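DM between two lab members

TW: hey, do you still have the GNAT family N-acetyltransferase entry open?
JB: yeah, one sec
JB: this one, 242 aa:
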Amino acid sequence: MLTFATVLLLSRLLIFTSSHLTVRLALVNAELARLNLQYISDSIVDLVRLRKWHSSDVEWYSRLIADPDVMRLIGDGKPRTADAAALEIERFQHEQKTLGHSRWVGYVLETGEPIGFIGFSERRGEIDWGGRAFRKFWGTRYMVCSAILALDHGLTCCNVPQAVAVIDKTNHSTLGLNAKLGFRECGEGLYFNRRHNRQSINRGVYITQTRQSNMALLKRLSRVGRSLTVPPHARAEFEARC
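TW: and the structure you got?
JB:
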């Protein structure tokens, strides 16, 4: 039988432990608030995370959009400056505050290394879907998982009704990935004197026809080993689904 002194000691220990954990949690939350970071990833993903932008992201984002290979099929096809990077980040932050959605930063959970961005943006009176990534992540499960996660978050949590992707006709990898995510062809257009395909996805169709398989694929890809590229059996499964 526990003595009164023992019960009192255990009670004090429990109160101290609870208070200590509360303080630590408060410190963590305060730090996140200071950085203005909001993590939107689901716990089912142990490979990548998405978050909002912060002004300190200018450094790595400047390097990303200064890469000619990254920018070759985007807009006028020219690399952009650090000033342009800062302006884009400001626009993304404004959209996140006013619309609740925008391009999100994708990063490797294990290391914190930025992958690039993925998500939505208001353009030409439409909600545009797009992304950019460092070359080392092209064709990898890191980019695929980020895309699935961002698309699902926008269409289900942010209530994006429909998104349109405008992709250079020669960018076969992105066109193929979007198709596998549930986008469907909806026409063509001429932008910057280059032919582009238009693809769209509807929230209702996504939820009823595509979401379940996308989420299942997300779980499998995000938990397969630690290699950078998509394992052959997972890649074959991904390609066979559509």
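TW: got it. Residues 38-240 form a domain with the Aminopeptidase fold (CATH 3.40.630.30). The chain has two domains: 1-35, 38-240.
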